Amino acid sequence: MNVQLNDFENYTTVYLIGEIDASTSINIQNALQNLLDNGQKNIHINCEKLEYISSAGLGALMSFVEEIENSNGLMVFSDLKPKVLNVFQLLGLDQIMKIVDNHQQAVTFFQN
User: Fold this and answer.
1) Cα–Cα distance between 38 and 8 in angstroms, integer?
2) How many C-beta atoms lie closer than 10 Å to residue 88's C-beta?
3) What is the pLDDT of residues 23-63, one digit of tens each?
4) Would you state the pLDDT for residue 66?
5) By residue range, what is the domain housing residue 27?
6) In the chain, how many domains are there?
7) According to a count of CB atoms within 10 Å of the terminal CB, is the N or C end of the chain lower?
8) Which CATH number belongs to the domain containing residue 10 in this structure?
C-alpha cells in the first residue's frame, strides 16, 4: 500500500495505490491527518490504482469525512474499480460519501 500526494491551489489529490487493510490503513490516517494539520480541507481521493480495501481501510477514510465536512471542506472519491465500488455500495457508503467516475469530475467540485 502506498499513498502519494499532489497539491493544487485549493485541494490535494491523495492517490491510493495497492491494497488497504488493517495493517496499512495507518498510512492513510497519517497522510490525511497531516493534510488537515496543515490546513488543507479539500481532499480528492483517487482510487484508480486501489486494488482492495478492507473494512479497516474504509474506517480510516470514514473517520475523516465528518471532520472535513465540519471544517467546511470536501472529500471526493474518484476512479473506483468495480470491486472497490461494490464494497462502498454494500456498506451504504456511496450514500454518505461523494463518489464520482473520474479525476476530472472530482476536480470540478473544487473549482466551483
Assistant:
1) 14
2) 20
3) 999 999 999 999 999 999 999 999 999 999 998 899 889 98
4) 86
5) 2-111
6) 1
7) C
8) 3.30.750.24
